[in-house]
Amino acid sequence: MSHLFAHLARMKLIQRWPLMYNVRRENVQEHSLQVAMVAHVLVVIGNRKFAGQLNAERAATIAIFHDASEVLTGDLPTPVKYFNKEIEAEYKKIESIAENRLLEMVPDEFKHDYQSLLISDHIDNDYKQVVKSADTIAAYLKCLEEESAGNLEFKTAKKRLLDSLHKNPDPAVKYFMDNFVPSFELNLDDINRLL
């Protein structure tokens, strides 16, 4: 018997942004879906417009599992995780232990298939970078959502994330920011009017 999917089903119970007031709470499962959708389109953009060679479905699948270890560790807030190098290094060790614990739950005949989804060290760096970019975009979109609801709690995070996205060298990220993000600052009536 494997407890893997019983654990993964708990992704919906892990709340993100735990140190900040949220108008609408976000859980790891819904965040992972958004990251997967953004990672997928970043690869599609990269392949079609910038001579990329990655597999969009692979990027999306990696993104689905990118925070899976949080079912064992919880979501450690960014200010805590990166407070100093010692905490960051120790948290990386904790993440690694959690990733390996999840892999132990996979039946032996499927371990190879899940190793490159659950274990960070087994994911190709190009895919890691796409998922990291998509993760940053998803966090930025959360900030826009909260800000549009009148919540100023995310103001500093929004600026930090936008600065990071502007520095991102991937042209697909810039394309996404220029072509898809402006709609997130409109209400539903305005979006429908522009169709």
Can you put this structure into words, describing what you see?
There is one protein chain. The chain is mainly α and about 200 residues long. The chain has one domain: Hypothetical protein af1432 (Orthogonal Bundle), CATH 1.10.3210. About 65% of the residues lie in helices and about 0% in strands. Helix 2 packs across helix 10. The protein is globular and about 50 Å long.
**Which structural class do the helices and strands define?**
mainly alpha
Radius of gyration: 17 Å
The CATH superfamily title: Hypothetical protein af1432
How many DSSP H or I helices? 11
Report the oligomer.
Answer: single chain
In the CATH scheme, the class would be Mainly Alpha
Which whole number gives the mean pLDDT? 93
Give the CATH topology.
Answer: Hypothetical protein af1432
N-to-C CA distance: 50 Å
Overall number of structural domains: 1
Q: What is the name of the CATH architecture? A: Orthogonal Bundle
Instruction: Determine the fraction of residues in helical runs and give it as a percent range.
Output: 55-70%
The largest β sheet comes out as: none
Q: What proportion strand?
A: under 5%
Shape: globular
Low-pLDDT ranges: none
